[in-house]
Each structure stands twice: as structure tokens, then as C-alpha cells.
Design goal:
110 residues, mainly alpha, 0% strand
Length: 110
């Protein structure tokens, strides 16, 4: 690529080139992977468990927002995503050290 061309401003994309929504199946799969990691954080993470869970919960909430608005999903499925998002919003705050069991619903799972 010509370096001078790369520095020149690009024209706005035509309406036909607008960004498309991600496939809802991929977004659901990614969200489930985030939820799985939230439930069982990988050992050796650079973040403490509470901090990691807070970040993961925020991303889950974001994904659920987009799923709740996704036109490819049925109204019933969008409603489920909205309700799930409301539940996950409470998990976006970091849990104090020693409170990981409370973040997981108040119960220890063995």
C-alpha cells in the first residue's frame, strides 16, 4: 500500500457499506464463554478473582444488551436477553475479597 495514500482521509462509507450486526449465534456463544469463565476463573490470572469477575460481568451485560436489541432474534428471545441482562447488571461491581461466594449467588459449589 502506498504510505501517502494510507495517510489521506478516507471518504465516509456508502450506506450499503454500513457495519452489520454480529451473527446472534456467535454473540450468544461468546456470551456463554464469558459466563463460563465468570463461574470458573482461570487460575493464574493477572487480576484478582473479584476484579476479573467484574470485568467479565460488564462484557456479559454489554453482549446481552446487543442480543436484546438484535433484530434476528424473536421477541421472546429478546425478552429473555433483557431479563438476563438485568440480573447480570448486579454482578458488574467488584466483590470484596472473601466475598466470591456471594457473587456466585451466596452458595459454595463443590
Amino acid at each position: 500500500m502506498n504510505p501517502v495514500h494510507a495517510l489521506q482521509p478516507q471518504a465516509d462509507p456508502a450506506p450499503d457499506d454500513e457495519a452489520t450486526l454480529p451473527c446472534p449465534h456467535a454473540l450468544i456463544a461468546g456470551t456463554l464463554a464469558l459466563m463460563t469463565t465468570w463461574a470458573d476463573p482461570a487460575p493464574g490470572s493477572a487480576l484478582d478473582v473479584a476484579g476479573l469477575r467484574s470485568l467479565l460481568a460488564r462484557k456479559v451485560v454489554s453482549n446481552l444488551f446487543f442480543l436484546a436489541e438484535h433484530p434476528a432474534l424473536s421477541p421472546a428471545m429478546r425478552q429473555v436477553m433483557t431479563q438476563a441482562r438485568e440480573r447480570w447488571q448486579g454482578l458488574t461491581h467488584a466483590v470484596p475479597a472473601g466475598g466470591a461466594a456471594l457473587a456466585a449467588g451466596g452458595a459454595f459449589w463443590h
